[in-house]
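Researcher: Before we compare anything, I want clean individual predictions. No alignment, no superposition, just each chain on its own. First chain goes here; please echo the sequence and then give the structure tokens.
Model: Echoing the first chain and its structure:
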Amino acid sequence: MKKIFYILWGIAFILGCIGVAQRFMYGHELANYGNRVVWGLWVAMYIYFIGLSAGAFLLSSLVYVFKIKMFEKVGKLALITALVTLLCALLSIWFDLGHMWRAYEVITRPNLPHSMMAWMIWLYSAYFLLLVLETLYAFRIESGKYDGDKLKSYQKKLGILATIGIPLAIAFHGGVGALFGVVAANPMWHSALTPIFFLVGAIASGSALFTLIFAFFWDNKKGEYYQNMLKTLAKIVLVAVLFDVLLEWAELSIALWMGSPEHTAGFRAMLFGQYWYVFWIFHLLFGVVIPVWILATKKNGIAIGWASLLVAFTFIGVRLNIVVPGLIGEKIPGEASAYIQPRLTYNYFPSMMEWLVGIFIVAFGIGLFYLGNKYFKLTKENNSVKS
């Protein structure tokens, strides 16, 4: 199985590098978005990975803030998962930028306090630094090289950082939702529920990713700890997914019940448009119905792992259903036929170059996590936090 994994990862990485080379050589020319559908696959991947990071980080707070003993052995695993997925998110949005090499100017020349994007980038920067520091302190405590006052000092600092990290993680991912929610010209996004929807989705997808890692890669699958931890994680994923569906139902039912045609256009495109299968099959069937049934009825690690894999993988469909349907509707009736040009179309499907860059980002994240697990033994049961 390891050999198969290495071969598949190598193929994915090589194909991804081809896409990255095309992105550097041709810019956005090979991408299928344009002047009307301005965001595509990479933006969806960006908010997807950001959600994974926030969800994994909030799980780590169960160790370092709330001191729940059951989660002590997986604290560093949650931190590394959050860090790797954050890097994947930043890489995704970096590829989407028109002038990639000017990304630093959002920090050096921010339009504060008026720009939601500037707030978001500053929150990312603070979150990234906090996550790095927290990970360093966690590994120092775990190393066994420190004791006495030094150890207590590190534990105190780690607790403070983790406590600050909870509102920061909520703020930065809520900020992503607010970035969409403040766009008054797009009725599908312009809702006070949007930031909450993003946060709940982060908990659902992030906890699912963490659960599949634990289910498949934890070294001691026969111990009592593995079984108890798996049951707890399964309950977290189940509740989070059901709550996310509840919010989704509230958003859709209210919008479609008495909403104006302009307000409901994006939702109708999502439910009944050309990509209807992303919602009904990819998201609802494989991402909700089947995993919920498995999580509610099955107790073994393999079944829970596969259910969590379905939730984590199909959640990219949820993010695509936020980004694309909100952009493919005409803002003015007849606008689509007023000017005929490939970059002025309201149709969008990712190009091969976009898919290849997406594959590269996923392969990059898997490679980072593999190296982290190999050298730091993140999935070893004796890898516990000393308190």
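Researcher: Okay. Second chain, same rules.
Model: Second chain and its structure:
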Amino acid sequence: MDKRQLLKTLALSNAAALLALSSLNVGAQSAETFPSKAVRVVVPQPAGGGFDFVARVLADKMAQRFTHGVVVENRTGSGTLVGTDLAAKAPPDGYTLLLGSVSNMVLNAGLYKNLSYDPVRDFEPLGLAVGYSYTLVARKDAPQKTLLDWIELARAKPGQVTYASAGNGSGQHVLAAALWQLAGVQLTHVPYKGAQAAYTDVMGSRVDLFFDLSSTARVHVDSGQLKAVAVSGPQRLGMHPQVPTLKESGVSNLELESWFGLFVSAKTPAKELAVLKASVLEAMAAPEIKERFEKQGGRFLGLGADDSKSLLKRDLARWVPLIQSLGIQPE
């Protein structure tokens, strides 16, 4: 072998060695990179509802950062229990997230004596994206205009004023029952299997009142089929600026906003947890995300992990004792 051939052989050998070493480094980096497969977001409610909408907006944005994508998985059953329990028991590797809200992270803690998960102990909040107020709507042919008018009627005729809900233990039921108790009046609860059936009877003047998410109630109020009486959030809504809050109505200091955000197992390793928190914050920081939520009637929150945890603990301390005092039995 002449000198030229020898140099060529050595050069090829060195190149091969460098390529092999590079491959090993890339492989090591890939093994350490999170996520190395698709992340799933468990939604404990059917497709098409408020839970599902928020989950898909956030998942679509996060998928732009995660190479392997983010998959939304609707796991329904027993209200929000089945999906939430599934997420609580999933391997704590950061690949299973939960779409959490006031319903499954706060109200359930007051409704169920033996809840299979602990909202604080079992989950770590990644961020709360949006809050939706509830609107108290009334049949359009009722002469009563304000919440005080309805309270006075209920006080004069105990049990004769009726209110609908989407089922025993639903957010609509809990909020209304708490309001009537704090106001010291007795109304008759008419539970339905879902909000649509409740709307049908309120619009048909077979039931007097109904609390529902403002984003859903808006359609029926704007069309003139129902009258908006009050909203449950901390401030008036831009879409119905003339409708007072419960606090402004002078009946009670009650306030409830159904917030939505992403949670993960509290046992998730620190490295994966940091990646997830950063990705959720990045998704919420996008201007188009805020715009989409507000267009749907929501109040953009964009809260990071620490602020989300504080809000969760505040609402648990506020609502669990109140729900337990109401004696509400879930379906």
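Researcher: What stands out in the second chain?
Model: Residues 3-32 form the longest helix (30 residues). Additionally, Confidence is low (pLDDT under 50) at residues 6-31.
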